[in-house]
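Take one protein record:
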Amino acid sequence: MNSIAIFCGSKAGNDTIFVHTAQQVGEKIARQGKTLVYGGGRSGLMGVVADSALQAGGKVIGVIPEALVDRELAHPNLTELYVVKNMHERKTKMSELADGFIALPGGAGTLEEIFEQWTWAQLGIHLKPCAFLNVSGFYDALLSMIDMTVRQGFTHSRFADTLLVSDQIEILLEQFEQYQPPQPKWGASDITP
């Protein structure tokens, strides 16, 4: 596992633990010799995770849509910055560059990005791990909702079971190294009337 995509807020959030955790994530990825792949911005947790990885001597690749570059939101000091046409191209490029995906706290964009990658994993578009860094229980309600989709028959348990969750980045990175992807969707057991 050489490159890790981080999805996180373009704001810092209301609790300093979010910033502290983003710093730890960037540092840990860099110190393990992995490449950080992220959305290319300089604000909020995005900027924090990139800055901490760079300060720790890591390689940081950003992928940002033209519209956000035009608004001067691109991080100016990255190892590489890909400027793409739109958000769809951003997610596709990040998926190509990364070996695994972790969501830190964030809003709608963060959720949309990690859920798309998790969906692609279920469909067999890629076989890469997806994870939530559950800082201070930030994702507890969402994880309960995912459990509800399993109980109600909308998500197969094998996909929920391989969605990785921890409040420690070290544990998630270890789990990424051991990750075994589930069989993609649309086997015989997934087809019901």
User: Anything to note?
Assistant: The chain has a mean pLDDT of 94. The helical segments are 16-31, 44-55, 66-70, 87-97, 108-123, 140-151, 157-161, 169-178.
